[in-house]
Design the sequence.
């Protein structure tokens, strides 16, 4: 179980997260909100890549920073920005990431094969990442996030740049492993998450506005017929000009 307790994050005088409290159990969650709402900030804090200004993140009751290297093998994270590993082949990049995660030499080849197949990238595995299309780079990024079969998978706009066929394929593969994991996805488009999410978490200006099933959200917000309508009802399609309140 993942628990966020009163998490705040301030960048200089910009309050990006405002006392976010949230607990997640196994299942797929969609994190939805306008540009600048705080989604990536929240994901970076959950994955231990960014230190909150205040508050704690706990995994099974323990503060994640106290777990140290153990936490590395629990999480998989695909950040929104693509890394700069252009001179690595896909396979070399994956073995590098697998080493960082503490996956043993013995298991490595098999594990890399598994994740390459997950993202349908077996054939391009021995090409340099620099020669990949945007969608292929994105898929290698997803592949590294699931290395070692982590219990907590955080995907920040994983399907940005993917063609519709690959988007649907990745969505359906994600659906398959929802049972024994927490999967938090900030979808590129609402339809990437709507059919597979246990719950949707709505975030605006660094505040969690609501969390609920798609069905309940549709009922709550103006009898919306789908999640897209819920989104428009709440956010109106505007960019989020979050407050600059001092903490
Ligand atoms: N390193 C930083 N320094 C200063 N401000 C930042 C920094 N990173 C993010 N912010 C600000 O914090 C707020 C939240 O940003 P964040 O990237 O978390 O939003 P987001 O919901 O992921 O947006 P998007 O949908 O565009 O990816 C924004 O107002 C952003 O400008
Ligand atoms: Mg973001």
Sequence:
């Amino acid at each position: 179980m993942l628990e966020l307790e009163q998490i705040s994050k301030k960048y200089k005088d910009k309050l990006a997260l405002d006392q976010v409290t949230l607990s997640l159990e196994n299942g797929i969650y969609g994190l939805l909100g306008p540009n600048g709402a705080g989604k990536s900030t929240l994901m970076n804090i959950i994955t231990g890549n960014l230190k909150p200004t205040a508050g704690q993140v706990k995994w099974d009751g323990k503060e994640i920073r106290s777990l140290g290297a153990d936490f590395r093998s629990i999480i998989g994270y695909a950040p929104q920005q693509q890394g700069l590993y252009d001179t690595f082949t896909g396979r070399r990049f994956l073995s590098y990431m697998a080493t960082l995660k503490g996956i043993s030499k013995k298991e490595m080849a098999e594990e890399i094969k598994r994740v390459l197949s997950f993202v349908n990238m077996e054939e391009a595995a021995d090409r340099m990442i620099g020669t990949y299309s945007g969608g292929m780079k994105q898929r290698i990024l997803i592949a590294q996030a699931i290395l070692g079969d982590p219990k907590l998978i955080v995907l920040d706009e994983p399907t940005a740049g993917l063609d519709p066929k690959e988007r649907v394929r990745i969505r359906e593969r994600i659906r398959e492993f929802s049972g024994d994991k927490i999967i938090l996805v900030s979808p590129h488009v609402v339809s990437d998450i709507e059919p597979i999410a246990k719950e949707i978490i709505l975030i605006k200006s660094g505040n969690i506005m609501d969390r609920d099933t798609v069905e309940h959200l549709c009922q709550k917000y103006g009898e919306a017929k789908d999640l897209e309508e819920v989104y428009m009802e709440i956010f109106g399609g505007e960019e989020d000009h979050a407050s600059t309140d001092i903490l």
